[in-house]
Request: fold
Amino acid sequence: MSTRNPKTVTNLQILQYSMKWHHMAHEARSLLDVYSGLLSNQSVILAMNSSFVDPLLQLQSQLKKIESSFRMLVAMPSLDKVKEMGSSNEDIEDLENLYQNILNMFENSLLNLVSTDFYKLQILKEMLVWMSEDSSYLQDRIMMMINRVLRFAAWKARGRTSVDAPCLGVLAAELSLLCSHDDSSIAQQASLGMCHLFDIAKCQHEIGKSNPTDSKSHSLLFSSDVEFLAKKFRQDKRELAQTVGQTLLPSLLTDFVWSLLMKLSSPDNKIASEAASILIVTLTFHSEKVTMVSKIVDAIYKKLCENCFHNMKCDMLQVITLLTRTSPKKVIFQLMDYPVPADDTLIQMWQAAGSEATPAPHVLKTILLILKGKPGEMEDSLTGKKRFSLDATNMMPLAASQALCTFLPLGSYKKAVAQLFPQLLMALMFQVFYSSELRLMLADRTLYAEDALRVLLNCSGLQQVDITLEKNHFWNNPLSEEPYHHDTALQLYLLAKTLSDYNFPQFPETLHYLYKLSVEGPRRSEDSIIVVIFLTEVSFIDCEQLCSHFLSLPKFKSKFQFLICLPLNIGSHQYLRS
Reply:
């Protein structure tokens, strides 16, 4: 017997058990049907496992057989009901053995698959998805199998040179939702499974390092106190989220976050609420590790557009806030990439992104970067020259101007706005000038820069400037018969002169920034016009101070000395005509 193949022995034993249970065919017909079905599926699964079938096709085929077996298994009566089928102690014992062998057969199929390929842990993820879709599938006996398979996989991962388990993030998300389940036995098995999953992830993390530690120590993090940690996971979502963020690689953590985000739309409110709770805690501590931020932001926008009264709307907006903390540039670029004018959903997402003060400077600097672009301007891929286009995808500067109307008044942005006032002022000046080209073609899209400029003045203590400009019909000035560039230049001259008349307190910072622009050199001729207007008009505040300051700077002296020497009674508009 010892010389026989172990699989042969197992098959002989199965045959013997079958003969033993034959006399109970009538009493336990349902169990024997399950047993027969699982035996047939197992044969196919093992045959595929040792074949040279394409890996993806192999997994898909095996998954179908696993699903068939799974559905037979969950339809099987409980052990207590199975015992009731027996009429004697011997029958009850045989029924228990049959019941246990059915479970063992299914578990052995899973163990066999995982032992040869960690990639096939994805099957466990699919099982958990089936269980989340139908509450009758969520059974303690299935959770115990999943836990044991994960424990076996964690043991196999020790000392391996590679652990290819890309599904760990999604698998962790599914298990995390069960760690606080009302059924304590299910919660216990799920939390134990999480511990073993973290062991696997730790091995994966260590292997990815340039100088990995001793392979024997890969999985020792939880080995001495798995029960203790599992209990903490059940009681404290913060502990669970911290461990998830610390253990999973960035790509897997992103899968974890994405999976939970998708659960927010679950028809089961309890699942959606639990997913939101874990998601928010995880991002609170580890949002900096999340990749594909733009994809997440876009998914939230689409979901809220589909249903503006979404039950988890507040949680989705909180996700935007948390991602903005650590990835403001990615969030803002995505939020500026939607058509203008912005809809209510997008404005709410802007408000969520601007709800905290810490990322405010980074958000505004990102918007300033976008405002360097000219609406409708595109680069020809063949000639490399700039050309004008009304392609809706090239209107990010308009979206950025409109977004400033939301960001600038926020209390959390007060300090950042004060720090970046000159940059914001000039960027909006440029945009007012650029958008004049669009005024005749896109009448409903040309006032965002002016609106943002007005908000900037009011947020910066320059309300009196705004009032004066309004009296002079600055904000609703219709197009004159003059060419639009000249008309806009006069409008900019009026703003610069009004600021000068009120001796605006941001004068030193603005003056310094104007000098910086002049030295660096504007990118477009329109930019030069705007810089000229402001330099000449702000000189009315204190011409001697202005001259002494700029003439002491060699680079500026050679470039703009003629402007400073202009007589003070010559308005900017007079030489703009020449």
About this structure: Confidence is low (pLDDT under 50) at residues 1-9, 212-222, 478-485, 555-578. Residues 6-116 form one domain. The radius of gyration is 34 Å.
